[in-house]
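Sequence in, structure out. Go.
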Amino acid sequence: MSVSVLEALPIKIFADGADLEGIIDLYRKPFIKGLTTNPTLMRKVGVSDYESFARSVLENVTEKPISFEVFSDEFPEMRRQALKIRDWQDNVYVKIPITNTRGESALPLIADLAGEGVKLNVTAILTLDQVRGVSGALKREVPAVVSVFAGRIADTGVDPIPLMKESLNLINDLPAAELLWASVREVLNVFQAAACGCDIVTVPHDILAKAAKLGGMDLGALSLDTVRQADESCYSLRRQRDSPEGRN
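Output:
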């Protein structure tokens, strides 16, 4: 039932992760419309050869869009990597961070790559000024994803929904651009992203599993399930208490 609820949402759900087996499994699911990954996630799972890993992924992910990120902090090298990644496969989007680690804007590079026809996923965006700059750098006819880290915005105590709605207005004149709600923290965020009109939401593999299990679940049934889980824990404690060891 929960998967059907996810399928009915007016938003494209992308799986976000770097576990090869998980990527392949989720790619095969109809409700997953695309995939993303990044060097940080790859490092966490022990990937040491970026290109080899990416090509293993692309042997299986042949149709749905997938984003791979550049891993340099220097713009000329970012450009070289972006053009190389672009050529890996037709369904590949190249992730470019909105700035480098020194806070230098990537907008000139984004405009350059968009002019080269590179499908971009501009990432690590947290402000409306950044969205406004990206909307000016992209090309109307070139597919692009504008990834706003709504979850990180919420981490600061700020409601990201007004910013996401305004971001939609800012990219309204770019018919090939899509707004992506990134850094999902909980299942609720998937439904929030859909309700505020985002085109895409990226969801980590573990939250996707929870969403597929609980999304749209009847709250009365969930209450009963919660009580049963608590009773199982109590039963375990009672057994320990009543055992010979527990009576000593």
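Check: The chain has a mean pLDDT of 92. The radius of gyration is 21 Å.
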